[in-house]
Amino acid sequence: MRATLIYGAGDIRVEDVPDPVLHEPTDALVRVLRSCICGSDLWPYGSRPASEQGDRIGHEFLGVVEDTGADVSGLKAGDVVVAPFVWADNTCDFCREGLQTSCRHGGFWGANGVDGGQGEAVRVPQAQGTLVKLPVGEDSALLPSLLSLSDVFPTGHHCAVTAGVGPRTTVTVIGDGAVGLCAVLAAKRLGAEQIILMGRHQGRTDLGRDFGATDVVAERGEEGVAKVLELTGGDGTHAVLECVGLRPAIETAFAVARSGGTVSRVGAPQYPEVPMGFEEFRRNVTLTGGIAPARAYIEELLPDVLAGEVEPGRVFDTVIGLDEVPAGYRAMADRTALKVLIRP
Ligand SMILES: [Zn+2]
């Protein structure tokens, strides 16, 4: 079969790889219907040292179960399923606490002999705990939004939940990438009354307005902070959802947090230290967030997606085949694509 491998920064190749087979009785084989490229794939794409051997890549996919190991129950060949971006048994103590990203028997796609999602098929470890069955057919028009349950929608939701977003909350979302836009959607869904989206790509912030943003601030740095303060009577917002992961974004986040407010970050931090000092202490600002346990939220978010009440799949603005994946990475790195959907 064909699958995507990364050989180093800027070096993505689609190659023939061995067909996946069941290794463990807890495995399932899934034929991929849809996959996609994540903003976080751009970090290795930008900086991974070159290597002789490629590594499988991709952590968001949905597909059709083709075969299951002897210990997998509740799933059968033909089921359409979505996989969260971390696989997990969904039964250990961390999983029961809703922290499947810390599963004692789980791990990441594309690491330690586990397949990546950007290919024609995937061996899924801990399949019974990892996969969520979707009540749709292979040709459902909802597939893009259902695919977003793999990562970006639950990640935006995790950001909003950990920041305490609810009715009567004011919110600032930093970043107009797919996760930032999903954070807007999640904040709206949770009842936030004011949602200020900080982003400077108008096509994206227009989608953010459709998703529920009440205000858009295109300025960055001190100017951007001043704009948010102006929109909030000088106070900032209760919740700040930092969906970028770069130091200027987290600095802005603290500066626009209201006293007593919460900053949640779900952008994988590309800075070694959090700039949190006396000023944040004086104003009782809390920092929370982290890698999103997508698996914990899929069942909760799924009904709204199936009902069409939310359409997170609108973040996909480019659709490609598997052989075009290297171009898809370039397009996302160049910011000419917001998020790339792959039809293997
Ligand atoms: Zn677990």
Describe the structure concisely for a colleague.
Its cofactor is Zn(2+). The chain has 344 residues and is an alpha/beta fold.
Overview of this protein structure:
It is built from 12 helices and 18 strands. The chain has 344 residues and is α/β, with parallel strands linked by helices. It folds into 2 domains: 201 residues, Medium-chain alcohol dehydrogenases, catalytic domain (Quinone Oxidoreductase, Chain A, domain 1, Alpha-Beta Complex); 134 residues, NAD(P)-binding Rossmann-like Domain (Rossmann fold, 3-Layer(aba) Sandwich). Strands 3, 5, 6, 9, 10, 17 and 18 form a 7-stranded mixed β-sheet that branches. Strands 13-12-11-14-15-16 form a 6-stranded parallel β-sheet, with helices on both faces. β15, α10 and β16 form a beta-alpha-beta unit. The relative contact order is 0.16. It binds zinc ion. Zinc ion (ZN) binds next to α2.
